[in-house]
Amino acid sequence: TDACGDEPPARAGRDQALAKIRRTLLEAQASSAAVRGAAARYKAQATYPREGLAGALHTTAALVKAGLGVRVFSIEAGGFDTHVDQRPRHDRLMTQLDGSLSAFYADLAAQKLDGRVTTVVYSEFGRRAAENGSGGTDHGAASCLFVVGGGVKGGLYGRNPDLVDLDRGDPRFTTDFRGVYATLL
Length: 185
Prior knowledge:
Strand order of the largest sheet: 1-4
Order of helices and strands: HHHEEEEEEH
Shape: extended
Helix content: 40-55%
Oligomer: single chain
């Protein structure tokens, strides 16, 4: 302390930072406990497939039902980088996506929650139009994006890709994803 009995400024700043870190840690622990509790108490109204994406959507349904105030959930599903033997892998992945989303929306609908949820399915990269030498496709520019939910006006937005008019082997994108996100927000 200095001659007046006050803490040195550096120590006071450090103590404030540590107090903020402690508060943040306690809030994170409380949030984690609330999420775990909501997931543990949840009784699904649909049968989910036994795979990772479906499990994550099951937990998401539990958190929507719990009304914890979360507005955006993000779930990742891997395995879509199909450089080799694409057809059977892609078919399997699309079947998993279909089964997982179908169970999720059946569950939400049974609880009258489906009107509160909009799901966006996207990839961070597209695929090239031509098959490579390994029976797969390499990374490309344009991709697709699916929007699903009770409040969604269905249909195709943008233009179908022209598989003849390519940009160095890639389909040209016709809709900027930022416009889709802005519309959703």
